[in-house]
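re: that chain from earlier
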Amino acid sequence: MSRLPALLLTVVCAGLEAQSTQDIEVPLRDGKLSVLGLARTVLDAYGFDGSAIDFPDVQLPIEGATGIATVFAIDRALGDAIDLDWAPSGGGLVLRIDDTELRVLRHEAKRRFARWVGSLVGEDVLARKYELTVPDDLRADESCVVCVHGVDSRPATFDALRAYLANADPPVRSGTFGYANDEAVDRIARELSTHLRALRERDPERRVVLIGHSMGGLVCRYMLETPGLDPGNVDTLIMLGTPNQGSRLARLRSTIDVAEFLRDLGERPKLMSTFLDGLGEAGWDLWPESALLTELAKRRRNEAVEYHLILGDRGVMSGAARDALRDELLPECHRVYREKLRGWFDDLDEIVDGAGDGAVSLERGRLDGVEEVVVPFGHRALLSPDAADAVFGRIRGWID
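^ sequence. v structure.
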């Protein structure tokens, strides 16, 4: 049997923000499975307009021995992430989409593609550099402060904060953890855990304070709240603008990644940097109700760690301006995703002044069991010199 229908369905499902596991009834007609009808049903299940798509249909018989073999073949071709099976009633089929498995499938597909691109130019584009830098002459009673940056950022984003802390009375010296910033949150968390465990082996009595900006806060939380990853030497976590429940701007990253790849196809150094910076998993992990955030939401806070959270409320436009932008763009959009986009805009508090900081909304930044401090700054401005009194001063007090 041709793998085209299975491949097509996998591509369609991989582009959706699945919510844990979803069961979808598969349409049948005269004992046959319509691939076009199946694609439309999947799109409808996720809020798109499936009737707006059209392509040459493939009718697959599912009755009798041939039908059983067809269903089995499609199920095998889809892999573990997407399961096609007989409905319990016996009257049809059910498509089960598991976003946790789909996340693994998507990541592995990107790794294979990146490895293939690297083989063409003779470079290992999957090599990653993770670096923990800490002061080497800390006092015996001094905590080791480590700053963890977010997506599309780097350790230098903490320069103003680190300078403030170094000039405080008494001074606080700090280090950083750098990583490929577009990689999966759980992979970065495992690397951070490895480095902090090594620090604990060298200096078992040293306590660690983590300061995570944006996705950096999620990396720290994942490490501290995942059994087996807690290095055991962290006593304080300070989160700045962390999307604890995701950000609706995150899905735009996938579009940006594709655009950058196409832009840099003819320029080898830039093309390689696209992969060396990660595989675009950060955007998927940061989407509200992503597999990773759904898993993390079930975890308890680490009882050995003191949590602090600062959120900004200076967005980039008013709610009225957001609505006007929505109304201007929607008529130009294809019908298949027009209503989906309308819902996305209506819930886009991240960019609205007073409701978000331009990247993370107050609502989705909050974390159960942790009291947030709201300050009048945008997402990146949380680490600017202008935030010295409102943000840096609080951080200095929490380190004590």
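The domain at 131-316+353-399 is CATH 3.40.50.1820 (Rossmann fold).
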